[in-house]
Amino acid sequence: MPNDWKPVSYDQNTRQLSAVPDSFAQRNLGVLSIVWNPGIDVGASISPGTELAVIQWEDNSRDPITAPENCSGNIGSVNRNIIFENLAFEPSVWLLILSQ
Amino acid sequence: MIHIDVRTWRNASAAIIGKVGLLLCVISVSSCAHKDSMSSRYQISVDKPDGFSLTKNVILVADNQLNHLYGDPIWMRSQLVTQFVRVTIRPVQQDLFGQGILQWVVDVYGKQRPIIHLGDAANMGCVGEFERFLGIMSAPGVRPWLMAPGNHDAYLMGNSQNVVEDWQRACERAGGPLTKDMLVAAYLRHLHLQDEGFREAFPDVDNLPSSGEWRSDAAAGSVFLRAVAWSIDAGRPHRSFVVQEIDLGLPPAPDGSLPAHPVTAILLDTSQFPNPPTLVPVPGPNAGLNGNLQPDQLDVITRWMSNVDAGTISVLMGHHPFGTLLPDARAAVDQLRKQHDVPLFVSAHTHLGQYFVRGGSEGWLELNVGSIVDYPIEFRTFSMHEGPDGGVLFRTPQFRIPDLWGTLAGDRAPKCDSQWEAMPEDPDFYLTYLDGSSPDPEKTQLMLMTTLLHTYARLIDTVPSASDNDTWPDLSEYAGSDCCSSDAGVLAALDHILIDPDREQSIDVLIELGKFDQSRTVVDPIVHRDYRICQAVWASKYNKIDRRAPTANDPYIMFSTQPGNE
């Protein structure tokens, strides 16, 4: 996996953190689970670099999801019903929304 | 018109039957009110609680009913019979194009997760049907797949073995009947191709023992097929079986830790009978009405389940629902379920995805997977995760076609253009096969073949061949002139043939057209894919609801404000 592999992107306008389908497609591994880290819930404060969740791949390897640049604020919503099967496909799946 | 009368009569009959059923239900209120309820050990959750997966995430797919259209006529496939038993005939577009749906699932989702097929890959029970199915499932890049035999994979139209002549006729031009022993042998060939360990243990696939067993000694979680046992009985095909143990578990996590629970699935063969199945269920058995397992298979399963590591969770899967298993098999499976605290039984066969609760007020769950060709068209994925308080979570999202397609962007999923749809007044309308009640299978087949010829005409007209296409069908013998070297030529030939279609001739033409359509270069391959799959979906939908009409989940209905635009 290249060092610059980025599974998520943050849109400052919509305040939405979403999966990057091309990044998931590039891995060519199915996702078994995305497990939110303890404390990542509505109302929690996050900033760039905060470790948000762990991706569990079909070979049981794991990769962290960290808050990217500009992704700073309080969590408004957490997606706890992610369709892992569609993470590699457009449109991108939302993961977190920061509150206004 | 006769077709209106027939449909009206059938709808009226259904209404009367429904009312009588309701009345009986009201009369016996106590039995209607006391439904089985699932035990409090099960909790339904709308969100996924946090927790890592304990298992692989597998696709569950079933009942694609790949149907051989070009056999010789048999009495079961007449318009009269289908008025009473609707699945004896499906709309020709479902049979012709419906496997494109399975192909799409395999192509799009099967490259990142293994597949468990829960049976009824075939429909009439022909060698050629299963061979075509193997071709779909073995596409390049697809993860391993395993299947449990269904009744349609080894018995004529899923019911009987003893009607040799009918079965032979039905499977004419498709390699003949696929008896149960032949199915097991063909499936073992697939395992041999797919699984290196099995191949090393039995290098000569043409000389596999008539009964055998193999178990992988690979590390936990590193394989999909953990074990297989089989019996091939050519003298008594119905006693043949193949049973498999699937390692649903995962390899160790990066820190070396293993999942809290190893998880296995036993893929039962519920199409194994002591006597040849018969269409008439008394004394039977009828393989469509009931499933069964014999002591030799049950002995293997009992041994396998007893030998698993402590803490292992075992799931049982098979084609027939638990409630349709014959009493001895049901009791044996239930005993295994209780003894090993099996939390879930997974089945198919009903073509209606649903959960069953079995076993009374402290009931246990059966997940029943719907069909990938009959409406509502569906597949699921299945995995087990760490749940709250040391429990486990079943994650099994249902994916319904075409709803799923609306959620995917670009050309990954088919898009159905409403202009492609056949209308009730068109000769290739999806429910044309219901317009009549002839008991004559030859007449019925001629009607089906004629509809198919019109179906091909619409396809070629809508999805033109590319200008550089150099593959053309040879229809000269039937067209009255040299043919063909263009789409226009093919369409003209079809017009000529349709003036006075002949059954046998139509079959020859259709086979030639099928080869043409598979190999030709088209202007737009995506439209080619989408057009065919959408025809199958419309056919499947209207066949389910018996008319051209929306279903409750259709969000958009267009209406022309031009009264003459009908």
- First-last Cα distance of chain B: 19 Å
Largest interface: A-B, 26 and 31 residues
The CATH topology of the largest domain in chain B comes to: Purple Acid Phosphatase, chain A, domain 2
Q: Look at the helices and sheets of chain A and give the structural class.
A: mainly beta
Oligomer: heterodimer
Write the layout of secondary structure elements.
The complex is a heterodimer of chains A (100) and B (566).
Chain A: E1 8-11, E2 16-19, H1 21-27, E3 31-36, E4 45-46, E5 51-57, E6 62-66, E7 73-78, E8 94-98
Antiparallel strand pairs in A: 1-2, 2-8, 3-5, 4-7, 5-6, 7-8
Chain B: H1 2-27, H2 29-33, E1 58-61, H3 79-84, H4 92-97, H5 99-109, E2 115-117, H6 127-137, E3 145-147, H7 164-170, H8 180-194, H9 196-201, E4 211-215, E5 225-231, E6 241-247, E7 263-267, H10 295-306, E8 313-317, H11 327-339, E9 344-347, E10 354-358, E11 364-368, E12 377-386, E13 392-395, E14 398-401, H12 441-462, H13 476-479, H14 487-497, H15 503-519, H16 525-545
Parallel strand pairs in B: 1-2, 2-3, 7-8, 8-9, 9-11
Antiparallel strand pairs in B: 1-12, 4-5, 5-6, 6-7, 10-11, 12-13, 12-14
Helix pairs in contact in B: 12-14, 12-15
